Structure formats: C-alpha cells, structure tokens
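Project standup — Tuesday

K.O.: blocked on the structure for the chain from last sprint. Re-posting the sequence here as requested.
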Amino acid sequence: MMNIKQCIRIALLCAFLSGVGYVNAQDLLKKNDLSQVKADQLSDAEIAKFSQQLQSSGLTIEQAEQIALAKGMPATEINKLKQRLQTPGTTSGSVKSTSNNGSADRSANSSEFTAKKEDGKPVDTRIFGSELFSNATLSFEPNLKIATPMNYELGVDDQIQIVVYGVQETSMDITISPEGVANIPNVGQVKLLGLTIEAATQRIKQAMSSTVYPTLRSGTSKLSVSLSRIRSIRVTIIGSSRPGNYTLSSLSTVFNALYACGGPADFGSYREIELIRNNKVDRKVDLYHFLINGDQSDNVRLKDNDVIRIPVYKKRVELKGQVKRQGIFELLPGETFDTLLQYASGFTDTAYRASVKVTQLTSREKSVKDIEAAEYASYIPQTGDLFVVAKLLSRFANRVNITGAVFRQGYFELTAGMSVADLIRKADGLKEDAYVARAQLVRLKEDLTKELLPFDVKLALNNDPAHNLKLKREDEVIVTSVFDLRDEYKITIQGEIRAPGEYMFIDSLSLKDLVILAGGLTDAAQPKRVEVARLLKRDTLTAQDERASEIFEIITGDDLSAASHNMQLKPFDVVTIRRKPGYMLLQSVNVGGQVQYPGPYVMSARSEKVSDLVQRAGGFTPEAYLAASYIKRFNSEMDKDIKREKVNKIQTNMKDTTKAVLTDIDRSFDQIPLNMEYIMAHPGSTEDLVLKPGDELVVPKFDAQVRISGSVLVPTQIPFDRSYNVRDYLSAAGGTSDYARRGKIYVLYPNGKAATTKHFLGFRNFPKVMPGAEVVVPKKREKKGLSTGETIGIASALASLAGVVIAVVNLSK
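H.V.: unblocked you, prediction finished:
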C-alpha cells in the first residue's frame, strides 16, 4: 500500500497542479507561479481527486517535487500539506506502500498493521473473533527480523545480500531486475525469479564458482545468500471493513492482510474466507481453527496479485447465559449445537444442562423451542437462532439440617429411608447437655409453609416408629440444650475485691472460692465483715411480704481460713466485701505560685486546711498577692454528670435551653476565691477551707494592672490608681460603645470573685477596683426584628381586637 511519504509527494504535485485549489489539475500544468498556494484551502476530497489524476498523468514523484519547488511553492505550505496528509482519511482508498521503490527494508516499522478501525460504525464485539481486529493492543505485522525463510520465493525488486567468506571474501547487495535476473559483478546475470532462497543459493554458487570464485568449488570459501530488502506485493481484499488494494511486504500472510484491512465487515464470514490466486480459489481460510485451537495452517504466505475475498456469512447464531464464552458464532453446514458449545468452551459450572431454550425466527414471527440434552449432538441450528442457557436452581434436592446439642451441626445428605435417629448418628450423636425428652422437626409443607413435628429423642434413638420420624427434603431437626431452658446462673461480688463483677455460677461454689476467682481482697478490705444477699423464693412469700432479699452477715477472723468462709453460695447471690473503718489511701494536694516551697504535698489529715498547707509550704514570698489567692478544685466526671442532670431538670421546668450553664458545668475545675489575709490571721475559721484530695492552692504574684474589656471602644490594660473609680477606668478605655449595658458593668477580682453595679433611686453604685482586677462591660443582646409572618399575625390580632371593641361599643349604645 502507498505510504505517507508517497502521499505527501503526490500532494505537493497536487498543489502545483491546483494553484489556489479551484481549477482542474490538468489546467495548472501551464501555471508558472505557485507562491500563492494555500494548503488550508484544499479539502480532503480535492486531495483525493488530485491523487487520482496524478496517478494517470505519468509524472514521477521526483518530477512533481522539482516542478513545485521551481514554481515557488512555500516551505510552510509544504509542511501544512504533510501534516494534513498524515491524518487518516485524506488518501484515496486504503492503499499503502512499504517503500519509495516498492520494496521494504527488513527493519521497517509495522505501523501499517496497527489495529485501527475507520471512523464510522463500531465493530459488534459480540461476534466471536472480532476482538482480533478491534483490539489496539494486538498487532499482526509480519516479522521482518527473522532468519531468511529458505522456502521464500524471490521476485522482482527483492534485494539479496551475497557474502563470500574464507580464502576469498566479498559482500554485495543485488536487486533482482524486472527481467528476474541478478547482475553479479564479474560473474554475469543469474536468473533467480521464482526460485526459493535455497535454490537461488545453489544457482549463485554454481555461477560464481565457475568464474572468479573458484574457491567456492574447493570448499575453502563459503557462500551465504540472504534477503536484505524485501519486495512489495499488491493484494486486493474485498468484503472487509476497509476493502481495497493493499501494498504489503512479500513476507505477509493471510492473517497479516486481514488485520491490515480491519477484518471482515459486519456481515462478513469468519469461516469461508477465500484466497484467490491466478483466478482460482487456492484456499478457504477458517479463522475458527486459529481462534479455537491456535491452528495457523490457513495462515499461508501471500503472493503478488492475490485476492482475498470475504463473503457474507450464511449462518450465525447467538449463545447467551451460562456458557464460558458468550457471543455470536458462525456455523458451517452440518455443525450441531454440540459444535456450538465447543466454540463457546462449554457450560459454566452453574449451568442448567438438561435443556436449552432457543428462540427461532420464522417467516412471520418468533418461536421458542426446548432442546433436550439428548438432542445436542443432532440438532442443527438455523441462522438467527438465539440460544439461552439457564442457571441451576438455587435449591437442594437432597438436603437435611440438624442444629442444637449435637456434635456436628449443619447440612447432611438425605438418603433413602433416612430417619431422625440416622441424622443424629451422622452428626456424631448428642452432646451431654441435650434435652432428650423433646426435640422438634421443622418441615416444609407443599405450599412452602412450615409445620412443627415434636418427638422424643430417647425414644427415637430406640427406634420407636412413633418418634423416629422419616425425613424429607429440607427437614430441620432442632435438639435443645438444657442450658437453653433455664436462666443463665450468675453470681456477683462487689466492694473491696480486685476484680469485682459477675461470675458464672458453679455447683458447690463457696464464698472463699468466689473471692479467689475474683483475684482476692484489696488492702482496704475488711475480711471480718462480709455480707451475702440471697434471692428469696417468691413462691414462699405473700403479697404483704416486703422483704426483697435474705441477708447473711458473716463475721470471721482476719483471713479467709475461717469455716464461715466455706459457706456454699447459690445462684444470683450478691457478695459484698466491706472497707476497713478509717482506711484512706495517701492523697495529695498542690501548692503553686508565691510560696517558699511550691509543689505537691501529701495530706497529713482528712481535715487539713488552707492555713495548714501554707505553713507546710514555708509561708509566702515577698511578691505574693494574697488578695488574689484561690483554690482550683478539679471536677470528676461523676460530679459533672450529677450537676448536668440537675441543670437539665431545672431547664426543663423553666423551659430554658441556654447552653451557657452546661458549658460552665463541663469545665475541668472550679475556682474558689480565698480571703487569704483573714485566713492567716484567723486559722481554723470558716474562711479557712478544708482541702480535698487533688486541690491546688494558687498564690499569684502581685499584679498592678487593671484590665478593661467588653463593650468599650479600646479594650486595654492600665496601671492601678487608688484615686480611680470604674468611670475613670472606662474613660481610659475610650468610654463605652453604643451596645454597652452600662447598668450591668461588673468587676472581676483576681481571686475569682465578682462584684456587679448596684442601683438605688436611679443612681449607680459601681464596685470597688483593686490591683489585678478586670472591669467588664457586657454587650446588649441583639434584638431580632419581626418576620413578615409575625408582623401579619400581630396586625391580624389587632384588627380582630378592634372589631371586638367596636362591637362591644355598639352594643352598649
């Protein structure tokens, strides 16, 4: 086939002949100026027309190039033509060429064999075999790098390499002339046309050894003949996706040509492709031999002027469903459904193989036929048949099930005459906890509803016909465990035990055994006093009896060796181990800030107070600011939960959903202000708080600043001035903003206390300010305007009220 380079050269001559692209090409032979040629003005149809005219003009490509350049055709326009002609669809037909001189170098690329479908109708991928010609990752180019085939027949334009080595040495490339001879220097002409490489080697050796290469006759020199450049052949393909004349390598085969033309068209046959040589059908190619068995016996080498004819198919059927390869298959006369199954690689594992449904086409309508398995080898499909292989039913023909107190639960095979006892034995028998007095057989009735058939397991195993029931498909036998028929017996131990909690009750379990199971007593446990609470039998109580449990107080010695600790426990007993009176673990508090020895301190007494802790810490440093002292008391999760529950109840009663209170509850600690000067002057007073484990006493450093924050123009800090009051500090911050709530101004003192503004007869009495304090100006709440609906509602209510008033006035008259 004509390659891109040839097409470009043809297009150059086209441009030369076309001038500006609107005059007949033959009329442009007289034009002298091609400088105004515009490649963009040439359509694909015009280029195709000019290409055909050039082929009939008799001009060579070299002559066309020289004329175009001599006439002043711009190089930029030449490049544009090259780019356009490299796009598929700009050449006439599907013609390709492998070289300028009609032959191909053996290292040439294989782009002509790249899988590529023309724009248009896509390939129906359901057709079996179409993937060979639609998969871009496949390439059926001939291998030009293999050793020269010894059966290759030489033809015109083949270039052979003749190498003599040994005593005499030479190497030459000879091209076979149109007369079919090779002109070998100093030897003469040797006719090689139609000879194989093997025969040609012998003829060349004979000619050369009888002239200037006598050492070839004696064997002191050797001769090697191989192909260095192969010729091109022209093959015509009809009935393909891209029919036309193709110029291919002389090494190309039938499969190479089929791939180059895109394979059979949509209605083309894959099984009766004809190779016509010398006007006779030389071979019929069946692609299924290659697709099914990998057999390439039909993949013969092509010759010049061969014709490949792809006829339309005669019979196609479609196979769907539970087969390994679904698709549309072509069948030859005499092939059966069994053959079709082989092409589809057979049934899948889940296929229903007893019969296959086929939809047939009649002269007026469709019909359905069932093909039984016995007919697979004899049924001849008709063209257009659609076969559907169904899937196996999702049910079992011979399955029974057993669950419960047997050693092997699950499904078993239902055999002829199988009974309940047989199934129990297949399940390796009953477990020791099996309830043998009664078991259940659940059976599916004919309408698929279930019925329950009870039986005695012991009698069934003794082959009692009334209880050893015969099984049917999908029967389920349920053997109950005795543990399923009673509550789960547990026992509880709590208090000063290492692993408190619930434990499974065991017969003959004693108090001492339970303590050991729970890891033993803690150091705080009081073994002399153990309490056991036991559930009362309700059948012995009357309605007026208010007792909830029976309590046993066990008073023993200091260890568990006493006989009372061998008390036998009963299910649901609750054992409580008490704590020793006065037992307390060592717990610490912290001191931070301006004390002599800050850090953690172990509490010396349960009632240790702030003054005691300060004394242990060595007193205060000179920089201590006693008025700012406070205690950080950390909240446990239990405390938070209790407070949160109380607040939720209050908010529910008050219909208050504010989140501010809940946020305060979630704080990790509370800040308790202290009057430290009074505490140190009056130790043991009510101001001298009792410390709790985990408390932290904080004595800050003296701070002479006063902060002003909130709704002021410039929040800031300024030095404390004894002569200043709240108004003076607000003025120092630029005054309050328009959104300030002046009546709610408060002062936050450094120890955590707060004092708010007081009102009396319209006068405001602001709190006193001290060093380290903060003056806070709250912000007014944003007023939410009435919505349109609210405005309409109020207006309607007022109108209704006005109407009522008018009616009352009129009545009073």
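K.O.: great, moving the ticket to review. Residues 788-812 form the longest helix (25 residues). Residues 1 and 247 are 3 Å apart (CA to CA).
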